Amino acid sequence: MKDAVVVKDVTKRYKGFTLDHASFRVPQGSIVGFVGENGAGKSTTIRAILDLIRLDGGEVEVLGLNAQERQDAAWRENIGAVFDTGHIPDYLTVEQIDRVMGAVYRQWERDTFQNFVRRFSLPAKKKYKDFSRGMRMKLSLAVAMSHGARLLVLDEATSGLDPIVRDEILDLFLEFIQEEDHSILISTHILSDLEKAADYIVFIHQGRVLFEEEKDRLLENYGIVHCTAEQAERLPQELTAGRRDNRFGTDVLVRDRRKAAMQFPGLALDPASIEDIMLYLAKKEGRIS
């Protein structure tokens, strides 16, 4: 399988924060959820992928092109980027945006854009500043997907949207990747969306990528054992991914809940959500209480 994005040992240093040798892939034809707490390095990594910052180390390949091969700005036509803040001037209407984008993109697909406008029921003569947040996001996505993009890069694009709008957008993403050369990298705090749509999960914490894994494998394999502190000590280290002690006992995140159940029958054991896995691994790093 080809990769739409390859991030290799990417390092970027700021005062008080370092993106520390981040590495992961976005396989072609997949949706990759990029998760982590605020300030973990998600936006910095996305800016690195889009060539918006100068790296202190490492490299990024996008759609098979390394940094030297991306000197020509034409490669950006293959990328649809959407940010939570939006980058459309407030005074423009949908009709005006159509004309502006037609001048900006050589591959602007006016019919595709107008189809999205109708699908999303966007008012053609209303100014962007008067749009609701959901309408703004739909318009941004319509622009991103109307110039032949093969890769969508979305930074908190669904945050603040109501569940109905988010579900509509997730359906759009699933339609987009039906084309085998289309791929999506999406950073979000809404983990339930990723459990519905993502193929892979990349978790970054305090500037370091802690895991890159298939979503279905995470949800199928990981579990939480509820036990005593003594029982927790008897769990094999290779099985244990994290631990939380409380006044009622000890909860242990295990990498293979079926193996744990076979080795320790009778222990209370629940499946782990993506959020559970993130919290336990972050705590194991010693950076949250």
Give a quick set of tags describing it:
289 residues; alpha/beta; six-stranded mixed sheet; 10 helices
Descriptive notes:
With 289 residues, this protein is of the alpha/beta class. It is built from 10 helices and 13 strands. The protein has helices at 42-49, 94-104, 110-119, 133-144, 163-176, 191-197, 215-221, 229-234, 257-263, 274-284; strands at 3-14, 17-27, 31-35, 57-62, 79-83, 151-155, 183-187, 200-205, 208-214, 223-227, 240-246, 249-254, 268-271. The strands form 3 sheets. It has a 6-stranded mixed sheet with strand order 5-6-7-3-8-9, with helices on both faces. Strands 11-12-10-13 form a 4-stranded antiparallel sheet. Helix 3 (110-119) runs antiparallel to helix 4. The longest helix is centred in the middle third of the chain and has 14 residues, at 163-176. The radius of gyration is 21 Å and the shape is elongated.
Low-confidence stretches: none
Count of individual helical segments: 10
- Amount of beta strand: 25-35%
Q: What is the residue-averaged pLDDT?
A: 91
DSSP, total strands: 13
Helix content range: 25-40%
Radius of gyration: 21 Å
**What kind of sheet is the major sheet?**
6 strands, mixed
User: End-to-end distance, in Å?
Assistant: 40 Å
The best one-word shape is: elongated
Assign the structural class, choosing from mainly alpha, mainly beta, alpha/beta, alpha+beta, or little secondary structure.
Answer: alpha/beta
Spatial order of the strands forming the largest sheet: 5-6-7-3-8-9
SSE series: EEEHEEHHHEHEHEEHEHEEHEH
